[in-house]
Amino acid sequence: MTKKIGQILVEQLVITTDQLDEALTIQADDARLLGEIIIALGYCSEEQLLDALSIQLNVPRLGTFLKLQNIPSLEELIFDDQGLSATWWQQHAAYPLEAAHDVIWVGLTDVFDSFVIEAIEKSTQKQVITVLCSTFELRKLFANVDVAPTASGASPAEGLDDSSAPVVKFVNDIIQRAITAKASDIHFEVFKGVFQVRFRIDGVMQVIDQPGLAMHAAVVSRLKLMATLDISEKRLPQDGRIRVRLAGKIVDIRMATTPTVNGENIVLRILSNEGTTSTSKQLTMFPDQLADLQDIISRKNGIFLITGPTGSGKTTSLYTILGQLNNEETKIITVEDPVEFQMAGLTQIQVHSDIGLTFAKVMRSCLRQDPDVMLVGEMRDTETAQIAIQAALTGHLVLSTLHTNDAPSSFVRLQDMGIADYLIKSSIIGVMAQRLLRRLCPHCKTSHPDSERKAETMGLTSIEAKYPNLITQRQFYQAVGCEHCHNTGYIGRFAIFELLNIGNDADMLGHLTMDEIQTLVQKNNMRTLKEDALLRAADGETSLDEVLRVVG
């Protein structure tokens, strides 16, 4: 007896019995298939449902089929003289994969569509063998096929209502694939004649999909509705937030729209809570930097700044530090826009500038809440910086971020914001700059002696002499690429650091000239980002090419 789809999903640990019961209850008053309801509830992805259907019906997935077959050109299998044009195949969500003298293999998103199967069999006089395809796989198959426009010439996606179901599936599928690929951002971009979707994975942009330009308006409207934005406003940038449930997980997404000459672009920032709340987690530092960091955060007052460009991991580092400071004896308040990570034991406050709840206003209120530690998401203006300094001078440890290229530049940036030199010297206790490097895939990395010779010309020997005992044995590798890393040669990222522990040396800063700052840097033997990155490459964690890409 064939197992039911719900039973298979439960056995595969994709959904729980309670989630199945909820879907069955909804199906009693709903015409949709059970699988569609489970996807709509966010309990599983399209890929997981297709895997279960493949088991239930004993029908192969497209990936399995392609391992055994090569796809011929579509023109060989269209059979135009029998009435099946490329447009017909696309309209009916089907694709001819392979044909023999009496059999044709057809990729279908809906293998229960008997009308399409019967129409193909009647037109081709061949028996149809179905192959399960996802909507994304079908779009890839049609990517290089010329499909004639409809007779009316009307765009099928001018209004959201005309194609709401496909658009909802498309958006959910893109978000699900981004989460699976561990992408940090999703870019929906429109150019002249092209609408494309790109993911930023490990800091590098990758084109993932190119849906038809006709889908652009509907996708933008769908995303705006999800973020409760004004779908009629297309001339001004808008910011919003989306919370979705996909494959049983709640995902927070920050959304920003930008009008361009070709239409609106949308960028989604995926905010992940995983792995950020552990109190035992530590930063990926060499032991000497870790000792300096522990000295800085053990102090009871002062400002500790983390600097770097957008997407360099500053907030993740801040929360890793907060995880170490978080205990029952310490009151910690965070002021952010938005609150990216939620951690038990913290008082977390979301800034809303639209209603007047600014950083400065929230921080003034927080100082009356008797905190021991404050986290300020970003020092954006003079007023916020001044209040943070006041908090540091009145017995609070303040953690914050600043946009500068390196640690020493932080002092110049604060001066540029109008902060007096004596306030900077009396409040700043440490500054840390950071960047993210991609980690070499352990499955395919190979030894690369040429990198060692190149690193020597970049001063690696003197760096090792300056910071002894950090690298036990030099070993340089290069990226190759395999199925484990999607042929990129890298899996995941780690941070490199430039940490300046000011300690009791603030008087050395004098008038905060660059000469005085450099004197303090030399006294503290501060390792620069480039030096730290070279040591990481010599330790075999990343490639020299990646070091040069990020820090030059």
Give structural notes.
The chain has 552 residues and is of the alpha/beta class. Helix content is 36%, strand content 23%. The chain has 21 helices and 18 strands. The strands form 4 sheets. The chain has a 7-stranded mixed beta sheet with strand order 12-11-13-14-10-15-18, with helices on both faces. Strands 6-5-4-9-8-7 form a 6-stranded antiparallel beta sheet. Strand 5 and strand 6 (204-209) form a beta hairpin. Helix 9 (164-180) crosses helix 10 (216-226) and helix 13 runs parallel beside helix 14. The longest helix has 17 residues, at 164-180. Residues 72-77, 150-164 and 275-280 have low confidence and may be disordered.
Can you lay out the helices and strands and say which pair or pack?
Blueprint: H1 5-11, H2 17-27, H3 34-40, H4 46-57, H5 62-68, H6 86-91, E1 94-99, E2 103-108, H7 114-124, E3 127-132, H8 135-141, H9 164-180, E4 183-191, E5 194-201, E6 204-209, H10 216-226, E7 238-246, E8 249-260, E9 263-271, H11 287-297, E10 302-307, H12 314-325, E11 332-336, E12 347-350, H13 359-367, E13 373-376, H14 382-393, E14 397-402, H15 409-416, H16 421-427, E15 428-440, E16 446-447, H17 449-457, H18 460-466, E17 477-478, E18 490-501, H19 514-523, H20 529-538, H21 544-551
Parallel strand pairs: 2-3, 10-14, 10-15, 11-12, 11-13, 13-14
Antiparallel strand pairs: 1-2, 4-5, 4-9, 5-6, 7-8, 8-9, 15-18, 16-17
